[in-house]
Write the structure tokens for this entry.
Amino acid sequence: MNQRDLFEEEQRLFENLCSTLYLTIGFEQVKKNKGKPGIDGVSIMDFEASLDEELSQLRQELTDWTYKPSPVRRVEIPKPQGQGVRLLGIPTVRDRVVQATMKLLLNPIFERDFSQHSYGFISGRSQHQAVQMAQHIIRSGKPYVVDIDLSKFFDRIHHDRLIARMGEKVSDKRILRLVGIMLRSGVMIKGVVTSSEEGAVQGSPLSPLLSNIVLDELDQELEKRGLEFCRFADDCNIFVKSQKAADRVMEKVSQFIEKKLKLKVNQDKSQVAKSEKVKFLGFTVVDGTIAIAHKALQSAMDKVKELTPRGTHQTLETTLDEINQWYVGWSNYYSLTYYPAQLKKIEAHIRRRLRSRIVDQQKRKKHLYRKLIKRGVPRKQAGNAVFSNNKRWVLSNARAVTKAYPNSWFIKEKGQEIRSDRRVKHWFEVSQWISLA
């Protein structure tokens, strides 16, 4: 598309937004991303049941400027290790359709000029690319990291500055007006609507693009200063050669963020340190190699515990199915690690939790004793383990139990309890493949 065609397309932004064709594409994106209902209680399925009518009404409201976005529904998501909560907002499905359509139209205008150092929510870029680039920069001789944490970034986005920034590239003022209306739609908390004079809803389809537009100004400033950095959304690491340079960069960049961008740097969480002490997107770079960050490993251990609770009536098959759904995605993401033992540690913990479940299912010691003997454990070894004073967790790691239920039992599905669940095999094969990669 040449410059003239691009200009004409940008002039038609609002007309395209009001077309049923584009709104239909927007709905398909909302449907793909799934999500809960907003304050009106209308689900994606409900909306789709009368799709033609809903989209026709949306088109008409947008065209005659009677469209009014609803306040978002506030939800709180607990942070790992009990570090407070993350505040998210859930717009109604109809509002998500409008935002998804607008994002579809605006992305090409802004993405083409975004910094090559920015990896978040940009077509063709990913978290893995950001981590690998960070590793490359560190290996080039810049081991010191300026890790800047923005305090409540989404809640502090300055509306006027954002609209003005967008106006530099969007000539259709109607689009800018609509973005402003969306930003000020408000938040419903426990039935009470609170106005939103600043900030963008974390969780809405348009917010990732808006956050990149805000922080692109930071990217340009860092590039102007000749600094090497990697940014994914509001997670930004800057790499320098020395501690002295890192301290200076931290001071100057923090001043720019707070005075120019009107954002707040969290001094407690921001730091200057060698790369092995800094977490970036769940990873850390140790001696030029990528490893899973300690906090990410601890979060995984906590997740395993959550998926294998004590005293549950859930079947082993169901537990394995839930673990499979989580672990395949988790291990695929963390497959960048140069240390397979980190993945094996999680897998060993999963197997021990499952053995503990098996032990607990035998309500009497004699039942567990017979079970172990049936599975080939010598009587004396089984008796020494079972008739000790050890509880289920210690027993789960006893030689008698690991001999009865070895790693191969999970992989080859020899146990009667799980032999019909083919997904169990997939889970352990995937995890082993990743560990050996």
